[in-house]
Amino acid sequence: MFLNIQDSIAQFSSWVWGIPLLILLIGGGLYLFIYSGLIPFRYIGHAIAILRGKYDKVDSPGDLSHYEALSSAIAATVGMGNISGVAIAIATGGPGAIFWMWISAFVGMATKFFTCSLSVMYRGKDENGNVKGGPMYVITEGLGKKWKPLALFFSAAGLIGTLPAFQANQLTQTLVDVFQIQESSHFTAKLLLGISTAIIVAIVIFGGIKRIGSVAGKLVPIMVVIYLLTVLTILFLRLEQVPSIFSLIFEDAFSGKSVLGGALGVLIITGVKRAAFSNEAGLGTAPMMHGTAKTKEPIREGLVAMLGPAIDTLLVCSLTALAILASGVWENFEGNGISMTLAAFDAVLPYKIGSIILTICVLIFAFSTLFTYSFYGLSCLSFLTNTKIGKSYNYIYIITIVIASIIKLDFVINLIDSAYALMAIPTVLSTLILAPKVKREAAKYFQKLKRGAFNV
After folding, report:
1. 133-164 confidence digits (pLDDT tens)
2. Is residue 305 within 8 Å of residue 73, measured between CB atoms?
3. Is 216 exposed, middle or buried (0-12, 13-18, 19+ CB in 10 A)?
């Protein structure tokens, strides 16, 4: 029976991630990219100033500072998708898939600007009067109550899409690989690791959004710097291969000969899927976090949110891809996911240093994501029911960590990919409809900025 369910989900994932959804995500994002006139991209420096707290005000509505909101959103996106997801993209789509991940990142920056600006423009409140954000509130507050079925659809898909299945699965797989546990003991080891992970996650997530934001704010800078230094070391040791790696990526991006025998459309879909899994632009998760930011200026949070795909995909995913390609292990490696990334690090760095450092990074990346995703699922269930029932999601979340630790990777990927695809539909549709309101608000904000109205 389980095999039938697994096959059905695999078929559905393949169908739903077809050309129509590709057009919606990339086409919709490209439209927003052009429609913005690239104006938000000119204010990256201003976004960094916002992030540093220059415009923070204690009395602004919301729960998290701009920095905590972005850190929490990045904690969710900079995770196993950057380490394991990139390896999956290369294994299934070849080096060319990385090029399409880059394209998706630029498009994703524009998408994040619009979706996260809207998440502050159209915030809702729960029955206790607490500020809430996300596509479900954008739809009901921005488009009206008659659109509520679309908001319910998003929230229902979000309950599955934000489950910690992929992160828990790949975290346990990493530890099993690194410590070379005998195959006969894999199940027991993964079960024990899953239970241990669940206990650690529970300690943080039951403390609520403020504790999640505080922990994420401390973890994110550490994990990005450690990972950056490690991969730069790998590239330095294989410096002579770097130019040919970039050539391979660009050549393969339009041929797909390395893996797919010229199936360019499949290659593009592979890159877009993995980019979506990595930076989550257009899926609707980040707006739930950015919607809690302490600010009265929606455009300000949209600018901060734009930095997410740049850090996540253009920086961290690119580093992983370059390390894997520079190692050469991708060409004849049997398997994918975290096992490929581990093999790549160990192929270049001596004395298994690569495995040790990557294991540390995986632990930080995975836990930071696990902490944050719980808030997304809780928000979806709270919208579908109420805050009291919504809090019970954390118990489901903890149980899922244990189950996901012992099931097969393919099933996990297809399940989450399917839910992500369904979440993208209401998120992108509502954003496209409300985009003119963001553009008008942005014009007003940038005029005020030029006049010095925000100087403090």
Report:
1. 889 999 999 999 899 999 999 999 998 888 88
2. yes
3. buried
